[in-house]
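Input.
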Amino acid sequence: MEYVTIMEAARRCQVSDKTIRRWIHADKLSARFPQSNRSEIAVSDLEPFLPRHPPGPVQEAAIESRIAVLEHRVQELEQQVQWLLSRPEAPRAKRPSRRETRTTGPLSKHLVPLLAFANRHNVAESKVLTHVDINLLPAKRGEWTDRDGAVVTLALDAKGRQVFYQLYRELPAFLACSQCPHGYLDAV
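Output.
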């Protein structure tokens, strides 16, 4: 009697080796174990599990139809790729991000002139400009026109106003305004 390994049985039955092992464990397929780590299956026991029929004409027609559809779809996709690769690259208009601030023109509503802000809070301009120069106070640089027509070169956004309040609120001459503490929380 001829015997084959699990792998050969799986190949002949056109299933996976795990399927063969499951059939053995479920007692659907008999096997012998000549060694503790080796299984053998009689070729005659594989007969009920062998594929019976080659694909019939109906199955072959369905497969060919499916292949034709897939080949047509591949051709369409290849044409789309060629079209995308061959079209000239159009320059994209760059949209300004929210973080970018216009550095010229009228002063944006979310910015306040730094020196006017310092004067309102009774903080010396020289002290504020020194802190801007050493990057202790984050100010926006540009050239804007204020509502009254004055040219503004340094401005504060919300973050800058928070830092301004943190830096100068302890000064004896500091004057709070109606918006103080400018987003700063003392608990932080």
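Strands lie at 3-4, 32-35, 38-42, 104-106, 112-113, 140-145, 151-156.
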